[in-house]
Write a structure and sequence with these properties.
213 residues, alpha+beta, 5-stranded mixed β-sheet, 3-stranded antiparallel β-sheet, 10 strands
Length: 213
């Protein structure tokens, strides 16, 4: 049922109303605890500037950073073939939001530029373009849930792969929070892949999306 919602659309992005409908179903299925009042307070037509990769995204924040990340990834892995680097952990010792970025439970529209900071020539590294109010975290995970055409069009040339710049992570043996998650679509394996890379790693095929509003 959930897969049909993502496959039936044309273009890179789906309408706000369909994002709400999908989250309404997932809320009931997964027991997230959002009420009809929570859904009724959502604006179904948030304003969005024109741009090929600009779109409203319904961001779902659950009780904790870990719960939000894990539930979003569970939804992703139920919709697509997927691979997640086993070294990625989501407890408080291995995953957090960047400094001065807060986690607050709720349903909120965020307007994203999913090709933000994309430099096809020189590349970018997340450590140079991370800002608490502008760097998305869970919003990108939910964008993958909603936007099948966008995800499966990723090739690093016409549609960039994405950093998740609002997150910081570290591996079991690392002392410093020097990594951020990365999402790519593998055309060879036909799967979405979740890995982490150092924030000082340059890559010209990837964007660091921006929160526009």
């Amino acid at each position: 049922m959930l897969q049909n919602l993502t496959q039936s659309q044309t273009g890179l992005f789906v309408p706000c109303s369909q994002q709400v409908e999908l989250i309404r179903r997932l809320n009931k299925l997964r027991g997230w605890g959002f009420s009809e009042t929570d859904f009724s307070m959502l604006d179904y037509n948030p304003s969005c500037p024109y741009g090929q990769f600009c779109t409203p995204v319904l961001d779902v924040r659950l009780n904790t950073i870990k719960e939000t990340f894990d539930e979003a990834w569970l939804c992703i892995s139920s919709l697509y073939d997927s691979w997640r680097w086993p070294a990625i952990k989501t407890d408080v010792n291995h995953l957090r939001l960047m400094p001065k970025k807060n986690h607050l439970r709720g349903l909120r529209w965020k307007v994203l530029n999913l090709a933000g900071n994309w430099d096809k020539m020189r590349g970018l590294r997340p450590k140079d373009i991370r800002y608490p109010k502008l760097s998305p975290s869970s919003e990108i995970l939910w964008a993958v849930v909603y936007f099948r055409e966008w995800l499966t069009s990723m090739d690093g040339i016409n549609v960039p792969y994405v950093w998740l710049p609002g997150y910081e992570c570290r591996l079991e043996y690392e002392a410093n929070w020097s990594r951020t998650p990365v999402l790519i679509w593998s055309h060879d394996r036909r799967e979405v892949q979740l890995v982490t890379l150092g924030m000082d790693f340059y890559q010209n095929g990837w964007a660091a999306p921006i929160i526009l509003s």
